[in-house]
Amino acid sequence: MNILVTGGAGFIGSHLVESLLDAGHQVVAFDNLTTGSRENVKGVLAHPGFRLVEGDVREEVTLEPWVEWADQVYHLAAALGVKTIMEKAVYSITTNIRGTENVLALADKYRKKVLVASTSEVYGKHSNHALKETDDRIYGPTTIRRWNYAGAKAMDEFLALAYHQERGLPVVIVRFFNTVGPRQTGQYGMVVPRFVRQALAGEPITVYGDGNQTRSFTYVGDAVRAIIDLMACPRAEGEIFNVGSGQVISINDLAREVLALTGSSSPIIHLDYEEVYGNSFEDMQERTPDITKIKEYIGFEPRVDLKGILVKVVEYFREQERL
Ligand code: UDP
């Protein structure tokens, strides 16, 4: 197949591109190289089935020929990361809304199947329990800088479902939960690459708040396998899926695991979000997916546990340092 991956030079996108090329597809990565980079796809730049197109999903004219060319579209391009969202709200909202609107309108015009990447953030402020796809989405919080990403993505989900229900467009929606692995950058806030880089550099490990908040981390390779399988599953069309793992760890324990694994003697320090962003940030105390639905549809089982993920991320950062 011909497959278009918007955000294909990004963290998840570049891993997806590799898997699709390995499976024998022709792949175009469409990316504006902001959070993504040429570096992420350097291993496949010379692959005859691959092409990197520099473009912005907000610009319909540049995107159109590639949607027409493709048999399937994975729409992963997004403005993301706490830092981007907090500091560049207009860019975040327009990229996440207009970009998805363009992708869906073009997919509708040329009748192409689309996967839309959403986020666990759409659950908004929730009580502490494993989150099911049928739980309420964001509707309450009004702090624009904090919640614009979640709000925009929730609107993207609605738009994708509207195209599906009104026009029969084949769409699959996935909500990624803290996906981690090599090539993720800590520049925009993500905790795992930040802690690993800090530990390797002997810098303080910056735990935000008391560190008792928990997350459930998923290996990028597991997430990529999940979305490829969902795109191949006809029953998944018009449905929303949590993509995550059931493993839960506190941020304090994560910091300790990273220190143990790297043998680093970096101190652990606690910072308030205000100190980091100069603005109050509503952090979630817990964010765990219920993955019953995705298991039922495609038999999804995460294969790499947190230890395995950390080993891969440490290896990646050590390699980067040697280059
Ligand atoms: N976090 C932290 N130190 C950092 C970056 C993040 O303690 O340097 C915390 C953050 O407050 C959150 C968790 O790690 O509780 C996960 O943050 P991340 O930005 O990776 O993803 P989020 O869950 O916020 O989408």
TrEMBL record:
NAD-dependent epimerase/dehydratase domain segment(s): 3-244
Listed PANTHER family: UDP-GLUCURONIC ACID DECARBOXYLASE 1, UDP-GLUCURONIC ACID DECARBOXYLASE-RELATED
One Pfam family cited in the UniProt record for this chain: Epimerase
UniProt keyword terms in alphabetical order: Decarboxylase, Lyase, NAD
Coiled-coil ranges from the UniProt annotation: none
GO molecular function (one): UDP-glucuronate decarboxylase activity
Cofactors required: NAD(+)
Protein's name according to its UniProt entry: dTDP-glucose 4,6-dehydratase
GN (gene name): strE
Tagged with keyword Cytoplasm: no
